[in-house]
Amino acid sequence: MNAEKSPFQRTYAIQIKRCGEMARKLRFFRDQMSKAGLAPTARSATQAITSLDDLEVKLGDLEAELVEINANGEKLQRSYNELAEYKLVLQKAGEFFNSALSSAEAHHREYASNQGGESLETPLLSEQETFADASKQVKLGFITGLVPRDKSMAFERILFRATRGNVFLKQATVDEPVIDPVSGEKVEKNVFVVFFSGERAKNKILKICEAFGANRYAFTEDLSKQSQMITEVSGRLSELQTTIDAGLVHRGNLLQAIGEQFEQWNLLVRKEKAIYHTLNMLSIDVTKKCLVAEGWSPVFATKEIQDALHRATHDSNSQVDSIFQVLRTREMPPTYFRTNKFTSAFQEIVDAYGVAKYQEANPGVFTIVTFPFLFAVMFGDWGHGICLLLATLYFIIREKKLSSQKLGDIMEMTFGGRYVIMLMALFSIYTGLIYNEFFSVPFELFAPSAYVCRDPACRDATTVGLIKARDTYPFGVDPAWHGSKADLYHVMIYMFLSPTDELGENELFPGQKTVQIVLLLLALVSVPWMLLPKPFLLKMQHDRHHGESYTPIPEAEESLQSEANHDSHGHEEFEFSEVFVHQLIHTIEFVLGAVSNTASYLRLWALSLAHSELSSVFYEKVLLLAWGYNNIIILIVGIIIFICATVGVLLVMETLSAFLHALRLHWVEFQNKFYEGDGYKFFPFSFALLDYEEE
C-alpha cells in the first residue's frame, strides 16, 4: 500500500531518518573501534537502553565527545610531528654550520700565519682593505627544512634552474623515516639548507618548497641558541608525548565502553528502522486513528498471527483489538516452501534457476535425490567419496560455531551447502562401490573375483584367457573387469546408425536387438504423431462450429464501443496453414531438443571416464613409480605429490566440474521440460532476516 507516495511523503519518514542517523553514528563507532583494534562484545553487563529517544541523545553525546577527542589528538600529533622534524633540522643544520665554522676558523688561522712573509700567493689587497666598505658586502640568507628523499634530486635541479645557479644547497640524509605532519604517513626525508641572495630568489625558493611539499623551519646561526632551542624542543616533545598517551588511554576507555553495548544499540536501531519501514507501507484510515495493512501469509499461520495480534493488544493496554480479515484477490500469491537446514540448500539450487509460481510443482523435492546421484555417477570412487565425506562432517559437527562466524566467500558457500556435499559424498561412495574403485584401485570387498586364469600366461589379463570359475560377483563391477574396454557409447550410437546389424559381443542382454528396433520405431512414429493430429483436429472443430455461434444485438453505445474495439477483440479467421506451420516449428524444436538433451547426458559417461583415468594416472605414474625406486626420499616426495594432486585436482577441481555439470543437467535437461519458474518468493517480516550491514 502507499505505492503512490514517495518515501519522503509517508507517515514515518522522520522516524526512519532518525534511525538512519543513529545507524550512521554506530557505523562511525564501529570504524573507530576497528582502527583501535577493539571488537564489540557479545553481551553487556550494564542495563541496556530501551528507549529510542534516550539512545539518540546518548549516541549524540558519545559522537561529539569522540569527535572532539579525535580532533584534539590529531592536533597534538601534528604538533608532535612538527617538533620532531624541527629537532632534526636543528641537529642536522647545526652540524653543517658547526663544520663550516670550524673550516672557516682553520682557513683564517692558516691565512694569518702566512702574513709574516710575502710570497707569490700573497693577495695584493689585505682582508681589512677588501671588506672595509660595508656597503659593498653581500649578505646571504638561508632557508632550512625537510624535503621527501624521492623528490630531493628534482628539488635541487629546479632550484638551480629557477635561480640560474645563484644558490648553494646542502642536504643531509635522515636515517629513520619521519612522520609527515600533513599526511600523517612515514616518509624518508632529507634536511636541506639553501643559501641565497636577494628577495627575488627567496620568493622563488619559497614557491618551490611549497610545490615539492618541503616543510620549512626557522633556524639561527648562534651556536649557544641552537643548543638551547634543542633542549626546549626536546622538553616540549616529552610533554606532548605524555599528553598524547593520556588522550589515547581516554579514547580507548571510551571505545571500550561503547563496545560493551554496541551490539544491543545496533540491534535496537535496526529493529526500529525495520518496524518504521514496514509501518510506512501501511495506510491510515480517514479517521487517522488506525492503520490498515494488506499482505500475504501462509494459511497454516493464520491462527498464530491472530494470537500474536491479541498478545500485542494486551501488552500495549489497547482498548481496541486488532482486526484480522482474509481477503479474496486475483493477484498471484508469492511462493513459500517450508525448508530446514538440510533441504534449504537444495531449494536454493532450484531457486537459482527461477522461483516456482504459486502451487507449481517444486523440483526441489526430486533434486534432493537426483542431484547427488548424477554427481556421483561422474565422481564414482569410494576413496574420494570418503575424503569428501570427512571434510563435510567437519562443517556439520562444528556448524553451531561456524554459523556465528564470518567466513570467506568460498567457505561461506561451502558451509551453506554442507548437507548437499554430504549426500554427494555418500552417493559417490555408493557408485564407487558399484564401479569398484578406491583411488582407481579395485578391491575384492564382497567376494573373490568370479574369473580365474587358464594358465599363468594370463595373470595380468583383463578379458582374454579368463574363465568364469565362481559365482557372479555379488555387488558392483567384478575386480577382474577393471581396465577392460566400455562399449556402451558404441551400442548407443550404432543403435541409430545400424539398428538391424548383429550386436555380437556388444549384446548386453538377450533380446536387446528387438528392444532397440521397437524403441527406434516408436521414436520415429512420434514425430508425425506430434505434427499431424493437432492441426486437423483444430480445423474440424472450426468447421463444426462455423456459423453456429450468435451474439445478442448490442445497444447504440455498446455498438459504437464494439466497433472501436473490433480490431483487438474481434474473432480472427482460422488459417490452417498458419496452424500447421506453428505446429511444425514446435515439432522441430521438440525433436532437436530431445536429441540434444539425450546427447547431453553423455557427459555422465565422459566425466566418469575422465575422473577414473586421472585417478589411474596419479596412482600409476606418481605413487607406483615412486615406490619402484626403493628410495625413501623419492617415496616421500611421490606421496606428497600424489596427495597434492589428489586433493587439488580430483577433490577440488573434479568436484567443482561434476557439480556444475549436474547443475546444468537439472536446469536445462530436467527442469525446462515442466518448470516455468516465473514466480516470486515470500519474504515475511522478521527480525531474524535483518542484515548486519545497513543497506
Automatic annotation (TrEMBL):
Q: Where in or outside the cell? A: Membrane
Q: Which domain of life is it from?
A: Eukaryota
Q: Identify the keywords attached in UniProt to this record, alphabetized.
A: Coiled coil, Hydrogen ion transport, Ion transport, Membrane, Transmembrane, Transmembrane helix, Transport
Q: How does it sit in the membrane?
A: Multi-pass membrane protein
Sequence intervals crossing the membrane: 373-397, 418-435, 514-532, 632-653
The entry's cellular-component GO terms read:
vacuolar proton-transporting V-type ATPase, V0 domain
- GO biological process terms, semicolon-separated: vacuolar acidification
Report the GO molecular function annotations. ATPase binding; proton-transporting ATPase activity, rotational mechanism
Q: Which InterPro entries match?
A: V-ATPase_116kDa_su, V-type_ATPase_116kDa_su_euka
Q: Which residues form a coiled coil?
A: 45-79
The family annotation for this protein states: Belongs to the V-ATPase 116 kDa subunit family.
Q: What does this protein do?
A: Essential component of the vacuolar proton pump (V-ATPase), a multimeric enzyme that catalyzes the translocation of protons across the membranes. Required for assembly and activity of the V-ATPase.
Protein name (database record): V-type proton ATPase subunit a
* Species: Sesamum calycinum
